[in-house]
Amino acid sequence: MTLTTGGVPPVRAGVAAAVPDGAPVRTADPDDPARKSGWDGAPRRKGFFTDTSICIGCKACEVACKEWNGVPEDGLDLLGTSYDNTGGLGASTWRHVAFIEQPAAPARPAVDLGMPARHRGSAGPGADRTGDTAGASTGPAERTDFRWLMSSDVCKHCTHAACLDVCPTGSLFRTEFGTVVVQDDICNGCGYCVPACPYGVIERRVEEHGPKNVGIAQKCTLCYDRLEVGRTPACAQACPTASIQFGDVEELRERAAARLATLHDQGVAEARLYGDDPDDGVGGAGAFFLLLDEPEVYGFPPDPVVTTRDLPAMWRRAGVAAVTLLAGAAASFLGRRR
Amino acid sequence: MSVHDAGTERLTDATAGTGFRTGRPDGPDTSRGAGGGRRRRRRGGRGEQPVVPDATFTSYYGRPVVKPSPWEADIPAYLFFGGVAGGSSLLAAGADLTGRPSLRRVARIGALGAISVSFAALVHDLGRPRRFVNMLRVAKPSSPMSVGTWILTLYGPFAGVAGAAELTGNALRRGWLPQRLRPVARLLHAAGRPAGMVAAGTGPAVAAYTAVLLADTATPSWHEAYRELPFVFVGSAGAAAGGLGLLAAHGGDTGPATRLAVAGTALEMLAEQRMERSMGLTAEPLHQGTAGRLMRASKVLGVLGAAGAAVSAAVPQLGRWLRRPAGAALLASSVCTRFGVFEAGQASARDPKYTVVPQRERLERSGRATT
């Protein structure tokens, strides 16, 4: 692995540092993940802002990702889930476009009057919706308008990344760009990162996916190789509507806030940002989203928390338990000799 | 921009747009789950159980949010054998110090065998077993698997020396060893006790850390169990090690094994009950499907085993034929606990309900919910 970026060799603190004159100075942000991992003189944190309100579901990002990263085919199935035949992120799917078909709720009263729900299931309008096209089974007169949500999902490159925390080999590491990357030649396929990820992103590649990196944890690298030479990641490069925006995370957060304000001004009250908050359970994601519905509608966890946040408490509990066992075993030798 | 404009216009109306809503009344999986919960409450009459909320929730076509671990039977087997090894090293050291040679022998050899199987399972589970040594290139307190590897690296050789001393000691005494090997065997014999003490000192860590290994994940039924799971696991380890002693040691030496087995079973059951209360909704998978059957089997076998062990100790005439089945039941109970907890976690990861509903509730409690 080459720990260099175009012309500017960033170095880990403690390693003999020789940042050339005129090298870009890092942001002063003390919470910057690359800085916290010991990078010195590294570039600004890079990430994605995926604005799903302008995603057209073309899947160019999925294709570009596969092509650039040499990600093997992982099944050609018809899933019956709208136009989504990819399913979800995994070892051999590093970008995934979700398609959600929803009946556009007819004009509702501005205030909730507490009336019984119109639909069966009494969980509010839309409770009985399935993946079927709205109104497909009714006559033209009864057909309702519907909306189609599309969203391109990707690894979140968390500020507090559980996969990175739990990796026992150091294969997963924090790059100088603040992203999280697997080193294929180090990973021994222990699989611990897979259940650790609160978003279900990373996965161990299995045999059927082809010969490359079988048995090894795989996920988006935010095109580490392209970043090193100053290029845009393949998915963002391929996106025809600028739904996937690549850049410095700080700037992307401002852009996202501005876009949200615009949509709210236009009356799109349900627009919300997901993953942009540095105070959330993962310390803010490097890849965040503008969504038009609740996160779980898109398959995101509504309130993800990095599991290692509770790790000190877990070690304490385990320590007390271990002492309990020791004491219990010692006590079992007391008493009447038998 | 026509696509965008049209979308925006439509979106203006669609303020309550929802995706794929699963759960009652029409979600087959979740409705079965909810029914199970109700059945459980009725049958057990556990009025103190927190009321599991009506789990209507939204998901993306019912797909899981988090991924289940790629681990197979290797890992629960590893949990079990690690527990047997840790507990046995404690029994071995106690037996050594108090002059119970048959218990010492069984426990030392048992620990050696168990930790060997455990280690083999750990390596076999890897996607690239030959790269196991990469575990040793870092030491990371943030990774329970790294910490566990180092605990095993410390514990393993000492348990190994104690076990080897036991295996060669008999042969040495009877003069079965060739001349050349006798110095080695004498050295092992001399090292047996100190090595056994170190193994006993680190054994509890081997038994306890595996709870953290499971809990430090986003798997709902493992993470939410983190407060009590270490106690369930050390209890299970004590019961299993005691069970092994009962199964194989001479009757006169089994007193400590009996006491450890009974106390371990009691601790495991109490901790398990508390754990389920603190887990809320994510306790549900412990009662369903494969995991549910395993957990029930664990309880039945544990009660029978502990009762059998206690009766054996109180009535020596019965103990002659009762203590071995009791020991076997205790070992089997521990196997069921480990596989049950493992399977419950896997099931909780496969059903988005256990990820979405608790997180949604957390948001609503903290007032951060957007709608």
From TrEMBL, chain A:
Keyword Acetylation: no
A Gene Ontology term for the protein's cellular component: cell envelope
Pfam family, one: Fer4_11
Gene Ontology molecular function: any one: metal ion binding
Gene3D superfamilies: 3.30.70.20
Biased amino acid composition, Low complexity: 1-25
Domain 4Fe-4S ferredoxin-type, first and last residues per copy: 46-76, 146-177, 178-207
InterPro entries noted in UniProt: 4Fe4S_Fe-S-bd, 4Fe4S_Fe_S_CS, FDH_Electron_Transfer_Unit
Region of interest called Disordered, as start-end residue ranges on this chain: 1-43, 117-140
Subcellular compartments: Cell envelope
Main location: other
Keywords: 4Fe-4S, Iron, Iron-sulfur, Membrane, Metal-binding, Repeat, Transmembrane, Transmembrane helix
Biased composition (Basic and acidic residues): 28-38
Domain of life: Bacteria
Transmembrane segments: 314-334
Annotated protein name in UniProt: 4Fe-4S ferredoxin
Gene source species: Nakamurella endophytica
Higher taxonomy: Bacteria, Bacillati, Actinomycetota, Actinomycetes, Nakamurellales
UniProtKB/TrEMBL annotation, chain B:
Matching Pfam families: NrfD
Keyword terms: Cell membrane, Membrane, Transmembrane, Transmembrane helix
One Gene Ontology term, aspect cellular component: plasma membrane
Composition bias type Basic and acidic residues, residue spans: 1-12
Region (Disordered): 1-55
Family from the record: Belongs to the NrfD family.
Full protein name: Polysulfide reductase
